[in-house]
């Protein structure tokens, strides 16, 4: 979560919260470490007061919103210069945003998890804009190991990847390079996401490209058959549940049709997120 709205001081705010809100007034590169220390101190003190019942929920919520707002201002400030201390660099790494990607690490990049293999990763757009976020990547599976937190940059290995803000009305694509068929072969089905869409392209001398081959990834029904479930039986069982709901007047006839069709479309669709 990124808090973009500055909190205003009011009479009901605790003195520690008022001090916290005022940190941006003296935030600059020379005092960045001081501001970070102050920010962490005020939040921990306020949290302790909240746990002991001396601060109400509204003050606690405003504290967390203020923390997010100021921490992002500090990160933006520090991203504008490479001349920062090792202590501050470690602090930036610990403040990394988590970007959730529409992929399965275990299916597409198993060696990243298994042997700490590092692949070059870079955004595929906004190359004319300076990245303003320090990020680690998380996949959409339910496994906490589905994470990438080591990246190769021009200066060596980093715990975070510089990326851009993500807007609600746009897609943001990343490329992972030097993967090849070896990673594709190693991928397994332990999280039931299956194969991704694959495209083979040829780069042209004029800077363009030619699409040589395109292969669609697995559908939900295909993956279910891999683990010995029959999609037709699943659909029929779902129909029985819907019919019972109609008979008990929990669903109307029009709702029955819409829900049943939606379920059929889903089970025949892609295993990864689709708009």
- N/C terminus separation: 22 Å
- Total number of helices: 10
CATH class of the largest domain: Mainly Beta
CATH fold-level assignment of the largest domain: Lyase, Ornithine Decarboxylase, Chain A, domain 1
Strand coverage percent = 5-15%
Structural class: alpha+beta
Mean pLDDT: 82
Main sheet record:
4 strands, mixed
Please give the domain count.
Answer: 3
Assigned CATH architecture of the largest domain: Beta Barrel
Order of helices and strands: HHHHEHHEEEEEEEHEEHHH
Q: Into which percent range does the helicity of residues fall? A: 40-55%
Q: What is the radius of gyration? A: 25 Å
What is the 3D shape? globular
Low-confidence stretches: none
**Any idea what the CATH superfamily of the largest domain is called?**
Lyase, Ornithine Decarboxylase, Chain A, domain 1
Structural commentary:
- The chain has 275 residues and is an alpha+beta fold.
- The protein folds into three domains: 79 residues, Methane Monooxygenase Hydroxylase, Chain G, domain 1 (Up-down Bundle); 98 residues, Beta Barrel (Lyase, Ornithine Decarboxylase, Chain A, domain 1); 48 residues.
- Helices cover 41% and strands 15% of the residues.
- Strands 1, 3, 4 and 7 form a four-stranded mixed β-sheet that branches. It has a two-stranded antiparallel ribbon with strand order 2-8. It has a two-stranded antiparallel ribbon with strand order 5-6.
- A hairpin with an 8-residue loop joins strand 3 and strand 4.
- Helix 1 runs antiparallel to helix 2 and helix 9 runs antiparallel to helix 10.
- The mean pLDDT is 82.
């Amino acid at each position: 979560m990124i808090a973009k709205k500055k909190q205003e001081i009011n009479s009901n705010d605790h003195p520690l919260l008022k001090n916290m809100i005022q940190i941006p007034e003296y935030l600059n590169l020379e005092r960045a470490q001081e501001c970070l220390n102050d920010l962490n101190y005020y939040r921990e003190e306020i949290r302790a007061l909240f746990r002991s019942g001396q601060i109400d929920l509204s003050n606690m919520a405003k504290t967390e919103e203020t923390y997010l707002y100021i921490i992002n201002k500090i990160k933006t400030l520090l991203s504008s210069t490479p001349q920062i201390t090792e202590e501050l660099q470690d602090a930036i790494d610990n403040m990394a945003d988590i970007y959730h990607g529409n992929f399965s690490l275990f299916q597409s990049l198993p060696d990243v998890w298994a042997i700490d293999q590092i692949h070059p990763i870079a955004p595929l757009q906004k190359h004319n804009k300076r990245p303003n976020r320090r990020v680690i990547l998380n996949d959409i599976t339910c496994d906490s190991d589905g994470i990438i937190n080591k990246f190769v940059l021009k200066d060596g290995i980093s715990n975070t990847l510089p990326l851009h803000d993500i807007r609600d009305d746009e897609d943001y694509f990343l490329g992972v390079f030097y993967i090849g068929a070896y990673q594709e072969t190693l991928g397994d089905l332990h999280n039931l996401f299956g194969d991704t869409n694959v495209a083979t392209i040829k780069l042209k001398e004029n800077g363009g490209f030619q699409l040589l081959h395109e292969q669609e990834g697995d559908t939900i029904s295909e993956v279910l058959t891999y683990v010995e479930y029959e999609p037709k039986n699943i659909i029929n069982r779902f129909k029985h549940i819907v019919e019972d709901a109609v008979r008990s007047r929990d669903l109307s006839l029009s709702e029955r049709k819409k829900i049943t069709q939606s379920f059929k479309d889903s089970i025949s669709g892609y295993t990864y997120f689709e708009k």
